[in-house]
Amino acid sequence: MDLTRKFGDFYLVPEGGTNQLAIKGTQEILTPEDDGFSQIVTAIGTGGTLAGLAATIKEHQSLIGISSLKGTFIHGEIQSLFEFYKIEPKGSLTIFDQYHFGGYAKYKPGLLDFIWMFYQEFGVVLDPIYTGKAAFAMWDLIQNNYFQKGSSILLIHTGGIQGNLGFIERTGINLPTLSK
After folding, report:
1. pLDDT (tens digit, 9 = 90+) per residue, 123-141?
2. Residues pairing with 92 in the sheet
3. How confident is the model at residue 3 (pLDDT cuts 50, 70, 90)?
4. What pLDDT, on the 0 to 100 scale, is given for residue 21?
5. Which tens digit of pLDDT belongs to each residue from 74-130?
6. Residue 70 exposed, middle or buried by CB count within 10 Å (0-12, 13-18, 19+)
7. Helix (H) / strand (E) containing 93
8. pLDDT grade, residue 18 (50/70/90)?
C-alpha cells in the first residue's frame, strides 16, 4: 500500500533513526568545549551517532564506538555509512564489537551489576541496550590500561533509559530509573 495515500503528508523515520538528518543532528553533539578530550566513546546501534561524531572529531581525537549488536558486520555497516554520507574523520576511529553481551537487547548479570555500580558510584542511570554497554566497555578498557596515561575521555550518553521501565516490566529485573 502507498503510505502517502494511507497517511497523507508524513515523514518516514527509518528503523534505528539513522538518515541524513540524524547524522546532521549528531554532528552538533561535540562543541568547541569538547576539543580538549583525547577520546570520545559512544554506543553503536545503527551507526548514526558514530557517523555524526566521526564527521566532527578533531585530528588529535580518537572516536571509540561500542557496538551493541552481535557480530563483526558492524564494521562494514559503518564504512558504508561513511561512504554514502561522504564522511572522512580527521581523527582516528576504533570499533569494539565484543561488548554486546549476547547481542541487541541482550544482557548478562555482569552488565546489570555494572549498571547498578555505576549508578551508585556516579548517580548516572544507564540502560542495558546501548549506553550501559558503552560505559561497561569504557570502564573495562580503563581497567586494562587501553588508554594512555593522561587521557581525557568523554563518554556520550545516548539515552535509552526510558526503556528501563519496560525492561523491568518484561524481565522482572530491577534497574535504576529516573522515575518510579
Report:
1. 999 999 999 999 999 999 9
2. 62
3. confident
4. 86
5. 999 999 999 999 999 999 999 999 999 999 989 999 999 999 999 999 999 999 999
6. middle
7. strand 92-96
8. confident
Question: Residue 41 in 3-state DSSP?
Answer: strand
Task: Please report which helix (H) or strand (E) contains residue 127, including its range.
Answer: none
Round to whole Å and give the CA distance between 103 and 96: 13
The angle, 0 to 180 degrees and rounded to 10, between the axes of the packed helices 131-143 and 109-122 is 80
Distance separating the N- and C-terminal Cα atoms of the chain = 41
Q: Cα separation of 44 and 74, whole Å? A: 9
What's the DSSP call for residue 69? S
Residue 99: count other Cβ atoms within 10 Å of its Cβ: 19
Of the candidates 109, 150, 143, 138, the one whose C-alpha atom is nearest the C-alpha of residue 43 is 138
Per the structure block, which three cell numbers stand in for 98?
Answer: 565484543
Helix and strand counts by DSSP (H, E) for the chain: 7, 4
Which amino acid, 137?
A: A
Task: List the one residue out of 170, 177, 160, 163 whose CA is nearest residue 66.
Answer: 160
Contacts of 75 (CB under 8 A, 6+ apart): 95, 97
Residue 141's alpha-carbon distances to 11, 72, 170, in angstroms, are 40, 19, 31
How far, in Å, CA of 110 to CA of 102, rounded?
12
Query: What CA–CA distance (Å, rounded) separates 98 from 179?
Result: 31
